[in-house]
Amino acid sequence: MKHLFLPLLLLIPVAAWSACPSWSAVQAEKQITALHKEIKHHDDLYFNKHSPVLTDHEYDALKAQLQSLKHCFPELTLPAVAEENAEGQVDHRAFMGSLKKARDINDIKKFLKEAGKESILVQPKIDGVAVELVYQNRKLVAASTRGTGDRGENILDAVKQMPMIPKVLKTEYNDIILHGELFARLSETVRHSTYSSARHFVSGHISRNELDVSSLDSIEFFPWRWVNSPFESDKTVINTLYSYGFELPARYTDLVNTLKEIEKIRQTYSKPSGEEPFLMDGIVLKLDNLELRKKLGWDSRSPAWAIAWKFASDSAVTEVKGVDFRVGRTGHITPVIQVEPVAIRGETVRQVSLGSIKNLTGKDIAIGDQISVQLKGAATPVFGQVVLRPEHRTQPTPPDPTGYDAFSCLELKPGCEEQLTARVKWLGTRLDIPFLHEPLIKKLMLNKIISRLPDSFKMSEYDLKQAGLNEHSSKQLLMVLSTLHMASLKSQIRALSIPQVGESRSEKLVAHFKSWKKILNATPQEIAAVALMSVEQARRAKSYLNAPSIRDSIEWFRRP
Q: pLDDT (tens digit, 9 = 90+) per residue, 18-49?
């Protein structure tokens, strides 16, 4: 057990130290100072203004990056980062630190190895607000937020209005100090509030000048430490607190001895049943033996006898390495952020689509920024927010959007590679042309085989082999091309990307005109009436159909 005092830095989720940036001392100092300033700003938002804008994961990533850079540039003399930054009003009876966080299962194995045969308590890591409650002569006399760890904000008046928290204890002990978590019970009141999360609900209501008594009804307390406990076992503490009216720890505490037991509990908590009254973001492991806890004490600002193991995050923080601009078949420009590869839920994310140039400029994203990325749905990477904008950042230069529309890049010319590729790829998808995928299309364009849309129909087996397609696949592709005149009229219409003509309007045109000849001979007014579109939209569609590249494609469809 004597080695359980592990250095705190071993358990901080620090970025790879082996990848130190090749900066000058001046650059490094500016970056570290900027990070330090940013962290202090977010500390102020969280602890003083109760309006955080970063998730815990995003905040932890900032601090981890700061620690990593300090490791890379140890010669720099820079201020330390305070763990907390709240303006405390009340001195705590006992210091309130924060738990060390395990980076992965290996840190948990180390913790268990050092614990030896000692029993371990496992509890949910509740997403709430850490507070200290003090009872003297059985009565609640003080309540304060964690704040700096030494001092916190006085919230006694608010806590006294919370019916779920005992104000008088039936106990023989005259002096009881409890540390624990205030959390918002997941009731309708909380779900339909204007606060962004249950934790913000608590922070907002306990700091209001005029207390909302009805909302305080939804707030409960989960004690996770009886500081001056007279017992030798935390399990005894939990049972005793149950008799005082603090029932939750008895319901949500497991006594374990093996990693297998811990993993099973974590897995269960990571998929809430809906019956839990609180939100959780992980589990907490701590030694049951209180005498041993006293001997081990604290490591920096964290107890050496406990560790938090958070659930796998759906997000990560990474660096913007570049921005590509991809022009779609209709001329829409999509910025795609290239990021430092990062793993989220077992998936490696290398790029994130932003949807539009407006999103890129509106969110002020530049190369060198630290951004958060989330996985949504079927493992789709989604941009979260900019976590840090360093001094050394490069603004990307998007192409001029006025140069691209539904009529542009019907032929290959400078700046048209992306859009023409997208047009051919779409055509292949709508007409079920096998193997006509992006890599092959780009190779055919490079070999000057495809420079117009109708060139996609006139390739030879030699052309395809030169582009890297094997003989069997080449023959399959050419066979489909030779039968495109037999494809449905609707598929042919959709394949040409006619402006304003989607699935529904294609069906209407086919049902009424039934052939290319009648569509081409129809007036804009007739097309507008049939397809339920404006005459101006119909004129644009007719103009598109008369473009040489499109007319040549239609002639291929019409051949016998």
A: 468 777 888 888 888 888 888 888 877 776 66
Residue listed under structure tokens 């009529």? 407
Q: Are 297 and 289 a contacting pair, CB within 8 Å?
A: no
Q: Give the C-alpha separation, 45 to 62, whole Å.
A: 15
The pTM is what? 0.67
Alpha-carbon gap, residue 474 to 86, rounded angstroms = 68
Q: What values do phi and psi take at 238, rounded to 5?
A: -60, -40
Q: Judge whether residue 502 has pLDDT over 90.
A: yes
Domain 483-560 has CATH 1.10.150.20: yes
Q: Does domain 315-392 match CATH 2.40.50.140?
A: yes
Measured distance CA(107)–CA(9) in Å, rounded: 12
Report the distance separating Cα 27 and Cα 144, nearest Å: 41
Q: Is 98:147 a contact under the CB 8 Å cutoff?
A: no
Q: Are 35 and 388 in contact (CB under 8 A)?
A: yes
Amino acid at 443: K
| Distance separating alpha carbons of residues 505 and 490, to the nearest angstrom | 10
The Cβ of residue 251 has, within 10 Å, a number of other Cβ atoms equal to 10
Q: What angle do CA 43, 48, 53 make, to 5 degrees?
A: 55
8 Å CB contact between 416 and 409: yes
